Amino acid sequence: MVNRRELNPDASPEAAYGARLRNAREARGWKQDDLGLRAGYSGRHISGVETCTKSPTRKFSIAIDGAFGFTETVDSFEREWLKIKQGVLVQGFPEYVALEGEATEIRLFEVGVIPGLLQTRAYAQALDNAAVARGVITPEQAEQRLALLMERQKALIHPTPPMIIAVLDESCIRRPVGGPAVMEAQLRHLVDFAAQPHTMLQIAPFSIGEHRPFNRLVNLLTLPDRSLVSYVESETQGHLDRELSPVLPVMRGYHQLQAVSLSQAETVDMVRQHRKGTP
Questions:
Q1: Nearest-CA neighbor of 59 among 75, 45, 74?
Q2: pLDDT in tens, 217-276
Q3: Is there a single domain that holds both residue 107 and residue 59?
Q4: Total tally of structural domains belonging to the chain
Q5: How far, in Å, CA of 18 to CA of 53, rounded?
Q6: CA–CA distance, 269 with 257 (Å, rounded to integer)
Q7: Other CB atoms within 10 Å distance of the CB of residue 207
């Protein structure tokens, strides 16, 4: 092929986006002009995104999704664009998010804050606003991070949603975020979450003391082929693991955590009692 530029998807997130765009286009036997016609862009523009001389935008990604039939699917280029924009996210998390959208079962554990998938928009916004105030992220990055979270939550709403099991350290419901109204709505949302047929909610109470096996965020995914993925995170780095030997101890620890945590009925009672006492 004349003037065909070789792509290196490992060079950057934008390069990976461009390589994936070319692969999806060529898999359909389309030329750049063909895709451009379907998406409302010139073939030159398509070429620029594929070779990283032009940056993808949200508008472009939505148009590409429409052309490929990827709208609101795990293959969405809009989701890919959101991940590119999340430069403030810790290493490993964008890859985790991609797998999360495919999972048949999601297990969550968190300390101090409600896990993202269970956050209300106002609660998430309060956390992002605080990060902006501390100078950790910019207002634009906060907006992008919130958009990605809403996209993650939206992707899990479909006729056959994954089973979501969440164990929250008691600190998650006792730490006030965003003021009384925001916190009250967030606690109400947890009760509603627990009432769904594809969810399970447990609190790991302070009383379990040293028997709590985890001290930071831990997520576990079961994929459609029944393989397991673990994701753990520190303040600065996330680690994704798909090898069975290191994942199994994490799963074992999660089961031990569930065994010493409150039942769902006890958890809902605790959340409701705390709602009544929310100042």
A1: 45
A2: 999 999 999 999 999 987 667 788 989 999 999 999 999 999 999 999 999 999 999 988
A3: no
A4: 2
A5: 10
A6: 19
A7: 9
Helix (H, G, I), strand (E, B) or coil at 55: coil
Number of helices (H) and strands (E), helices first, in the chain?
12, 6
Please check whether residue 6 lies inside any domain of the structure: no
Please check whether residues 59 and 99 belong to one and the same domain: no
Residue pLDDT, tens place only, 10-54: 777 788 889 999 999 999 999 999 999 999 999 999 999 999 888
How many whole angstroms separate alpha carbon 32 and alpha carbon 99?
A: 29
Residue 126 lies in a domain: yes
Which DSSP letter does residue 38 get?
A: H
Query: Among candidates 85, 87, 66, which has minimal Cα distance to 24?
Result: 66
143: containing domain:
93-277
Structure tokens of 63? 């148009």
What six digits make up the tokens of 197? 């047929």
Residue with tokens 């003021």: 179
* Pairing of the two strands 163-169 and 199-204: parallel
Token pair recorded at residue 46: 């398509």
- Shared domain for 272 and 199, answered yes or no, is yes
Per the structure block, which two tokens stand in for 167?
């164990």
Q: CA-CA distance, 176 to 210, in Å (whole number)?
A: 24
